[in-house]
Design a protein that fits this description.
It is a single chain. The chain has two domains: 197 residues, 2-enoyl-CoA Hydratase, Chain A, domain 1, CATH 3.90.226; 47 residues. The chain is globular and about 65 Å long. The two termini are 33 Å apart. 49% of the residues lie in helices and 16% in strands. It is of the alpha/beta class. Helix 4 crosses helix 5.
């Protein structure tokens, strides 16, 4: 079967491939644990300036492995308790990671796969891929931060429609609703996502990290608190080497060259 997650590093970028293609990359204990572990390592790896997440085979991820949960000797309640704790750790790593994380949606992304894709900073979706909320059709409620990210991407009313009726969402519809960043030909999804990651990695990563944190934290912030966070962020960036390079480049009317660009 091989490793549950395949990790490839090249040119300052890391690609994580969920590797249970026979189960449409559904999350069981082994896959979820390996996924969370690799995300923690990549977050701390200073040589990695961007992360792309995709799935082996014909799916991004079908979500939680319901059969695995039902077959648990302690029952599905215990299995889900264990699985969700680890899965939420992985989602938290993505949202806190001070570098871009891009989902390359190469096939169906349903349930936890849907929530995982929404947790990423950007999403590139294959033309024939589809998104499905999926939880409610199995009598479950959403996890993986989906109840947080979904209404912020599409609005409350649309999120309620997606949650209640659980209709499959095509790539064209996902793009129109703002659920994905870009649609690509099926065979080039991973390449498109990697090119996007490289573009972002060649920009100021310090600036990206602060901007990502400010946007993420804004949802639990008052206006005055957010102004203070912005002040601290701007002063930090202005004192950083990448900020100084950006300011000098502006004054000298040239393109900035950040020290740790990807090849």
């Amino acid at each position: 079967m091989g490793e549950p997650v395949i990790v490839r590093k090249a040119d300052g970028l890391a690609t994580l491939l969920l590797n249970r293609p026979g189960a449409l990359n559904a999350f069981n204990r082994d896959l979820t644990g390996a996924f969370a572990m690799h995300l923690m390592r990549l977050a701390a790896d200073e040589s990695v300036r961007g992360v792309v997440i995709s799935g082996e085979g014909r799916a991004f991820s079908a979500g939680g492995d319901l059969k695995w949960a039902l077959d648990s000797p302690h029952g599905p309640h215990h299995a889900f308790h264990e699985l969700v704790c680890i899965f939420h750790q992985a989602i938290g790593e993505i949202r806190r990671m001070p570098k871009p994380v891009i989902a390359a949606i190469n096939g169906v992304a349903a349930g936890g796969g849907f929530s995982l894709a929404l947790a990423c900073d950007f999403r590139v979706m294959g033309e024939s891929a589809s998104l499905r909320q999926a939880y409610t059709s199995s009598g479950l409620s959403i996890d993986g931060g989906g109840s947080f990210t979904l209404p912020r991407l599409v609005g409350f009313a649309r999120a309620m429609e997606i949650m209640a009726f659980d209709m499959p969402i095509s790539a064209e519809q996902a793009l129109a609703w703002g659920l994905v960043t870009r649609v690509a030909a099926d065979g080039s999804v991973l390449n498109e996502a990697t090119a996007m990651a490289r573009d972002l990695a060649n920009r100021s990563l310090h600036s990206f990290a602060w901007s990502k944190k400010l946007l993420t934290d804004s949802f639990d912030s008052t206006f005055e608190t957010q102004l203070e966070r912005e002040r601290r962020g701007l002063l930090n960036c202005a004192a950083h080497a990448e900020g100084m390079e950006g300011l000098r480049a502006f004054a000298e009317k040239r393109k900035p060259v950040f020290a740790s660009k990807c090849p």
